[in-house]
Amino acid sequence: MTTDTLDFDATRTDASVRFAGFGVRLGATVIDYLVLLPFIGAVTYFTMFSPNFSMLALTSILSLLYKPVMEGIYGATVGKMATKIKVVAKENEPITLSQSFLRAAPWLVAGIVGLYFNYLIFQIPGIENADGFMEYGLIVAEHQAEQGTSLNTILQQSIAWLPLVSALVMLGNKRKQAAHDLLAETYVVYKDPAPGSLM
């Protein structure tokens, strides 16, 4: 039996809770990425092939809601369900919807900031006439060359790394909590760990 458990108490029968590490959580993220491919495709389409900011915003917001809503209602995304892990609060209790939104903060902040910068791109004259990836890229590149590298570009690129930075925090703590888990007081654990088993 391991003492590396939620509020460990040797008298409890559920003291064999195992915390999910970086590898299995990365696997769950890859599966979730595949689940979100239709939304990612729609975002790409409404950005580069048929520019439409309203549809871009709608599909972006729906994709941002996937993680907190799934975890708030089911305790897991499709990726976490497939890898047999779940998000729990202290005492191995289900998390609340507010905790799920709090732990999704890095993704929500990165997504909202990204949406804002997409809005700014949609203000570039002629962008609505872009017909495909190449033309879209040329219009944006020309605009950026005229404007020069701005603080906005650096900020956007930095904030996009928030989810990864948050996830890497789990490598440095015993209960494998990412920064967003620490913020929301949540843990990611295996659903059906074998008593006394090790990760």
TrEMBL record:
InterPro entries: Pra-immunoreactive (IPR051791), RDD (IPR010432). It is found in: Cell membrane. The chain crosses the membrane at residues 33-66, 104-124, 154-172. Keywords: Cell membrane, Membrane, Transmembrane, Transmembrane helix. It holds the Pfam family RDD. Its main location: membrane. This is RDD family membrane protein YckC. The lineage of its organism: Bacteria, Pseudomonadati, Bacteroidota, Saprospiria, Saprospirales. It is a multi-pass membrane protein. Residues 20-184 form the RDD domain.
